[in-house]
Design a protein that fits this description.
The complex is a heterodimer of chains A (191) and B (239). Chain A has 191 residues and is mainly α. Chain A has one domain. Helices cover 91% and strands 0% of the residues of chain A. Chain A has three helices and no strands. In chain A, helix 2 packs antiparallel against helix 3. Chain B has one domain. Helices cover 70% and strands 2% of the residues of chain B. In chain B, a hairpin with a 2-residue loop joins strand 1 and strand 2. Chain B is an all-alpha fold and 239 residues long. Chain B starts with 13 loop residues before the first strand and ends with a helix. A two-stranded antiparallel sheet of chain B has the order 1-2. Classes of the chains: A mainly alpha (191), B mainly alpha (239). At the A-B interface, helix 1 and helix 2 of A face strand 2, helix 1, helix 2, helix 3 and helix 4 of B.
Chain lengths: 191, 239
Amino acid sequence: MVRTLSLFLAFNAINTNVFAAEAGMPQLDPTYWVSQAFWLILIFSILYISISRFYLPKIKNNLDDRENKIKEDLENANKFKQQSETKIKEYELIIENAKKEINKIHFDSKNLLDKDIQSKKDAMEKEIEKEVAKAQIDIVELKKNSIMSIQNISKNIASNIIENISGDKLNENSIKAAVKEISEKNISKHL
Amino acid sequence: MQQFTVYKIGPEIKIGGIDLSFTNASLFMVISASAILLLLFLGSKEKKIVPNKIQLISEIFYTFVAKMISDTAGTKAKPYFPFIFSLFMFVLFCNMIGMLPYSFTVTSHIIVTLIMALFIFIAVTIIGFIKHGFKYLSIFVPSGVPTVLLPLITIIEIISYLSRPVSLSVRLFANMMAGHTMLKVFGGFVVSLGILGGWLPLSFSVALTGLEILVAFLQAYVFAILTCIYLNDALNLHH
């Protein structure tokens, strides 16, 4: 209770003090008007001069520099982009040319090879034909020879057989003729 | 209203019988101006392509004011950019520093805002007469008004032109004073209602502080943009 009362009294005292000070508006008291005007003009002039002389040009420079830098960077980026595009085109052209060249080389070499193979083949065929013809001639010769030797052998055998059987020696020419007759009959089948 | 009282700091300075003593108002003007200069100094000290925080803040202020001027007054107002920038920054910092407890709000004094508004008014009028000569008076005669209404409109225009410094100064002064007074009243309620009932005015106080910060910014913006508009009237006659 005492506490509440003392608090109340304290607040009351503060309030009365505060309100006592509040009598009237200090703004309308002209005592310090001239002083305020004087200091305002002085301080604001200093502020204005230092801002307009030193700080605003600096900030403006900074902003302009940044804008220029950004512009420059963008321009550079565009330039580089164009450069890279032309380079890509050049590169594509080179690749295209290279492809054409490859095709040409491929075609040419194929032609060359074909020709080479063809000529070699022809030569080889001619050789083979020659060999075959030669071989055929040889075969015919051999056959003839063999027939002759067969005739001889068969004549000898025939005369021997006749001698052994009959004990007579026949005329060699007649035997030969006979063998020749028979053999020619048979040989004509083989030749 | 103790917070609005002006008192002397240091020795009494009297020049020609006029009291020019350094007061708490002067002190807070100095604090605001130093804060602005410090911010701009730190903001323009390093020249970075990617700005740091403080550089970014000063550049945001710069572009904000530059855009405001070019939007309202066009390119002709470029020479006045440093003045409007200083004005905006000064009013903004005075308002914002005034929001700190136990500080003094320079802009809550009618004499301060009136001096600024009168300076703007006189400067704009002089600029208008220099740029357009006596043709500047045609600002009071709007085009496309019926002849019958013309004298009346002209009188109204003259009154509205002459009341510009008053409206400009009273708007800022009244807003700042009313805001601080309101905060003070709610603070008084918190104390008088005690621990039981004081929570409601306390929460109001918190909300009002947020509102006052908005108002502090808004009034600085309005002050600067109205200056731009007046300048636009003087530079570009008849829009």
